[in-house]
């Protein structure tokens, strides 16, 4: 009988020791898991910040492509707009355009209805200025330097629109309500005649952000 009691007592002690050991092991495992989770969270936070910076950079470097069509609906130029150091940088690559010097502007409405593109309205002019770089009370925010088209109808031009932005909900944003458009005219802009520089007919138009 004493042996049986001693056996039971020994078994109980062994079970208690095993339970305590298991508890300590579980506590250690939980501590290790908590530490690992904390490290992963910190790493994720770091990655999130890096990802956010990359997203911001991607936004800053985002290119906006604008197709300019003639009155027959043919694409005659592609403009690439990007945020620049002093405004919006515009690269225009043209084909099948009339040779010579042409007025090039940003117009106030994002609508290019053929055949005359008058639906694009006047020049983009949120500051209510006069037209032309040579006017002391100008220029319009949408006034751009003239472009030159080669005899083969091609053009490769880089200009900067210093008074506009691609950021939405900002002053002079090209993404204002109703949109804006790029326009090529049949003649050169004289940079002083009101209201549009005597640049002639509108021969190609493209909606910005369409």
Model description:
The radius of gyration is 34 Å and the shape is globular. It folds into two domains: 1-61; 64-207, Superoxide dismutase, copper/zinc binding domain (Immunoglobulin-like, Sandwich), CATH 2.60.40. The protein has a four-stranded antiparallel sheet with strand order 1-2-3-7, with no helix packed on it. A three-stranded antiparallel sheet has the order 5-8-9, with no helix packed on it. Strands 4-6 form a two-stranded antiparallel sheet. A hairpin with a 4-residue loop joins β2 and β3. The chain has one helix at residues 2-61, and strands at 64-69, 75-83, 88-94, 100-102, 104-107, 147-149, 155-161, 181-185, 202-207. It is α+β, with helices and mostly antiparallel strands and 210 residues long.
The N- and C-terminal alpha carbons lie at a distance of 95 Å
Lateral strand order in the biggest sheet: 1-2-3-7
Q: Please, how many helices?
A: 1
Instruction: Please indicate the percent range of residues in DSSP E strands (runs of 2 or more).
Output: 15-25%
Number of domains: 2
Give the helix proportion (percent range): 25-40%
Number of beta strands: 9
Helix-and-strand structural type: alpha+beta
CATH superfamily caption of the largest domain: Superoxide dismutase, copper/zinc binding domain
CATH topology of the largest domain: Immunoglobulin-like
Q: Please summarize the sheet with the most strands.
A: 4 strands, antiparallel
Radius of gyration: 34 Å
Global outline: globular
Oligomeric assembly: single chain
CATH architecture verdict of the largest domain: Sandwich
CATH class descriptor of the largest domain: Mainly Beta
Average pLDDT across residues?
81
Low-confidence stretches: 2-8, 19-23, 43-61
């Amino acid at each position: 009988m004493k042996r049986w009691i001693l056996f039971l007592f020994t078994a109980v002690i062994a079970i208690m020791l095993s339970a305590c050991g298991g508890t300590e092991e579980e506590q250690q495992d939980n501590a290790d898991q908590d530490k690992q989770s904390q490290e992963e969270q910190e790493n994720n936070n770091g990655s999130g910040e890096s990802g956010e910076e990359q997203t911001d950079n991607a936004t800053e470097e985002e290119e906006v492509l604008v197709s300019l069509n003639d009155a027959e609906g043919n694409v005659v130029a592609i403009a690439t707009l990007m945020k620049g150091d002093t405004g919006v940088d515009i690269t225009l690559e043209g084909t099948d355009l009339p040779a010579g010097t042409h007025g090039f502007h940003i117009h106030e409405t994002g609508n290019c209805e053929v055949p005359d593109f008058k639906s694009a309205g006047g020049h983009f002019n949120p500051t209510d200025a006069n037209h032309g770089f040579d006017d002391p009370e100008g220029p319009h925010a949408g006034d751009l330097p003239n472009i030159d088209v080669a005899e083969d109808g091609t053009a490769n031009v880089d200009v900067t629109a210093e008074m506009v932005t691609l950021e939405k909900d900002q002053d002079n944003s090209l993404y204002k309500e109703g949109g804006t458009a790029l326009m090529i005219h049949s003649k050169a802009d004289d940079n002083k005649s009101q209201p549009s520089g005597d640049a002639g007919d509108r021969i190609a138009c493209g909606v910005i952000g369409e």
